[in-house]
């Protein structure tokens, strides 16, 4: 049984035959083997990379909507409880796990081989995210380029992509010019009416088809934007994290300047106060609704990017004795502050939009693409200097998306390089990164066809949704705390930090985080609702089957790999169990060269297999 009662004692005391890392780690020499593998240029580079990774589009387009949906300021109570109990502790756990072993998100699991499926599942989810997340950047590039004009094209219904159901504000009072359009709209607007920005989004940008069964042609303009986004991503990481650490200073900090400018502009607009009040006004009765708690916890897991292995890889480039506890607290504060700050920005502008359209704020609130590519473009069109503000906003979206994208991609690249050192992928990093970018770009072409939005929604709602993410995060906590051992991990961390961080952390890792993860996972499965796009399109049954396959392709690795390694290892069942639950690698030793570390981390499968086979044969011969 796991006991947390005796954690706060001398970290040099061994437990379960585990030797604390402090006993065999010396002071870092000048040549510590990091040259070949690379590392962060300094501590701040790592912090900025984590901020860029954690602070993304979800802070701008999902958090404000969830606040509105769940009682405004009331939502902050379960949000911060989830943050303290799960978000920050799991973030810290993943960073320190990578820092402890100085290797990527696949190889770390040789420390408890039977649960290596967790690493493969995380890698699979990260691959899916990398494929579709960058498509958002492609859309933002499209809008950015369309903003370089004196008149934004989504402001009225003059474009050749519009139809008679387009609600043109400029024609509402012009009976002579707009009689046919406005008369038809009066009769049909509640069911069929669309704003110019919605028609620009669906008919001009996406050229959306009638459903997922009609894939259609590739949108070549979006193809060019997608290629541009991938090229920028490639050149941000192709030389390693030392270069990436310098780039994120710009991509992570610039959005704050833009958000501040947008807030200053937003609060001066008519109706802004109404929007902000709507954002923060509490509805205390919502705390009794379980949905607010599941939404808060799910947002925390999404926002902090846990469960996909990227933080393990980013942490592996830290120096062994880096104080990542301080880094984690800083990133946690900045991430939550950004979400709240962005909420004020977005709702000040939505309040202005509601005033302009003479509707309630609730009628213009949306989440995801609906907020970013429909509601906000409508609002910015009515601002003085609309083109400039549009350029600023979509440039911010691109930077928020790209720094998250190349941190996720870095996690994939690092995992592959550390898992297969014999392939010398690190010496051919540029080719390796390029190959991964090209492969995922090709897969991502499905998302920029005329039916691509339906594919995008499937990937987002199933492949990287809360269901697989919570499942993997829960098993990750179980593997580290109940497999490798929370006392062992806690002592390793105390050896790296040089002090005991407090019993709060192991309690969260071993109890609160897995309980919340699995609890919300099962609630999400029970409360499953049929997949749809918008308000009217529901996916056909075979489309939902594809979605569940996307979810299961990652989730199944945890059990399937455990069964595979358990039943393919030689020897009796007890021998196999001993093998799959015995660490094949140990904590990083800074006195070794990179090649020695890489070779020592190769699974000793051949040697162990031979020993077990000899033991089994001798046993059978005696019988």
Automatic annotation (TrEMBL):
Q: Name one GO molecular function term.
A: symporter activity
GO-annotated cellular components: plasma membrane
The region called Disordered is annotated at: 1-36
Q: Give GO terms for biological process.
A: amino acid transport; sodium ion transmembrane transport
Keywords of this entry: Disulfide bond, Membrane, Metal-binding, Sodium, Symport, Transmembrane, Transmembrane helix, Transport
Residues annotated as transmembrane: 46-64, 76-97, 118-146, 218-237, 258-280, 300-317, 329-354, 388-409, 430-456, 462-482, 503-525, 545-567
Q: Does the keyword Glycosyltransferase apply?
A: no
Q: Does the keyword Metal-binding apply?
A: yes
Please state the protein's primary subcellular location. Answer: membrane
Residues recorded as binding Na(+), renumbered to this chain, are: 52, 54-55, 59, 303, 335, 400, 403-404
Q: List the disulfide bonds.
A: 157-166
Which family does the entry's similarity section mention?
Answer: Belongs to the sodium:neurotransmitter symporter (SNF) (TC 2.A.22) family.
- Write down the PANTHER family for this protein, in alphabetical order: SODIUM/CHLORIDE DEPENDENT TRANSPORTER (PTHR11616), TRANSPORTER (PTHR11616:SF254)
The record's section on NCBIfam families has:
Na_transp
Q: What is this protein called?
A: Transporter
State the organism named in the record.
Holothuria leucospilota
């Amino acid at each position: 049984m796991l006991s947390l009662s005796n954690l706060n004692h001398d970290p040099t005391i061994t437990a379960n035959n585990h030797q604390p890392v402090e006993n065999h780690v010396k002071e870092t020499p000048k040549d510590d083997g990091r040259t070949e593998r690379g590392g962060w240029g300094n501590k701040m580079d790592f912090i900025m990379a984590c901020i860029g990774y954690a602070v993304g589009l979800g802070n701008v387009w999902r958090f404000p909507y969830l606040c509105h949906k769940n009682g405004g300021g009331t939502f902050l109570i379960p949000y911060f409880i989830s943050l303290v109990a799960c978000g920050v502790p799991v973030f810290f756990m993943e960073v320190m796990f990578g820092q402890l072993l100085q290797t990527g998100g696949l190889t770390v699991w040789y420390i408890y081989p039977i649960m290596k499926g967790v690493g493969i599942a995380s890698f699979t989810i990260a691959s899916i995210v990398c494929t579709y997340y960058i498509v958002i950047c492609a859309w933002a590039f499209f809008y950015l380029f369309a903003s370089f004009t004196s008149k934004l094209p989504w402001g009225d219904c003059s474009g050749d992509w519009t139809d008679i159901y387009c609600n043109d504000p400029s024609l509402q009072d012009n009976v002579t010019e707009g009689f046919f359009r406005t008369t038809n709209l009066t009769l049909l607007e509640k069911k069929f009416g669309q704003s110019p920005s919605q028609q620009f989004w669906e008919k001009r940008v996406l050229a959306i088809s009638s459903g997922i069964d009609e894939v259609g042609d590739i949108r070549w303009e979006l193809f060019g934007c997608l290629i541009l986004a991938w090229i920028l991503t490639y050149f941000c990481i192709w030389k390693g994290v030392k270069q990436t650490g310098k780039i994120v200073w710009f991509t992570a900090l610039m959005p704050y300047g833009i958000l501040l400018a947008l807030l200053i502009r937003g609060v001066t607009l008519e109706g802004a106060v109404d929007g902000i009040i709507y954002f923060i006004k509490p509805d205390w009765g919502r705390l009794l609704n379980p949905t607010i708690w599941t939404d808060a916890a799910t947002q925390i897991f999404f926002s902090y990017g846990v469960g996909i292995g990227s933080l393990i890889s980013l942490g592996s480039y830290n120096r062994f004795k880096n104080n990542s506890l301080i880094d984690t607290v800083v990133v946690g504060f900045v991430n939550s502050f950004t979400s709240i700050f962005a909420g004020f920005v977005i709702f000040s502008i939505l309040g202005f939009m509601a005033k302009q359209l003479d509707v309630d704020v609730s009628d213009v609130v949306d989440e995801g693409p609906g907020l970013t590519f429909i509601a906000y473009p409508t609002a910015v069109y009515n601002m003085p200097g609309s083109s400039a503000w549009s350029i600023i906003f979509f440039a911010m979206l691109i930077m928020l998306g790209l720094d998250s994208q190349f941190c996720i991609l870095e996690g994939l690249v690092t995992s592959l390089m550390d898992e297969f050192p014999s392939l010398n992928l690190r010496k051919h990093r540029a080719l390796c990164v390029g190959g991964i970018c090209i492969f995922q770009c090709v897969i991502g072409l499905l998302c920029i066809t005329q039916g691509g939005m339906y594919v995008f929604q499937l990937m987002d709602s199933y492949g990287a949704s809360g269901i697989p993410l919570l499942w993997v995060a829960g098993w990750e906590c179980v593997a580290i705390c109940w497999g490798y051992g929370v006392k062992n991990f806690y002592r390793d961390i105390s050896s790296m930090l040089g002090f005991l961080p407090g019993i709060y952390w192991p309690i969260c890792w071993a109890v609160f985080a897995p309980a919340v993860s699995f609890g919300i996972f099962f609630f999400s499965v029970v409360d499953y609702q049929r997949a749809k796009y918008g308000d009217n399109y529901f996916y056909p049954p075979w489309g939902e089957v594809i979605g569940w396959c996307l979810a299961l392709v990652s989730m199944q690795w945890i059990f399937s790999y455990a069964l595979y390694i358990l039943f393919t290892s030689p020897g009796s069942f007890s021998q196999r169990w001993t093998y799959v639950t015995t660490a094949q690698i140990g904590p990083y030793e800074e006195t070794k060269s990179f090649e020695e570390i890489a070779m020592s981390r190769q699974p000793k499968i051949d040697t162990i297999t031979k020993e077990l086979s000899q033991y089994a044969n001798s046993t059978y011969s005696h019988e």
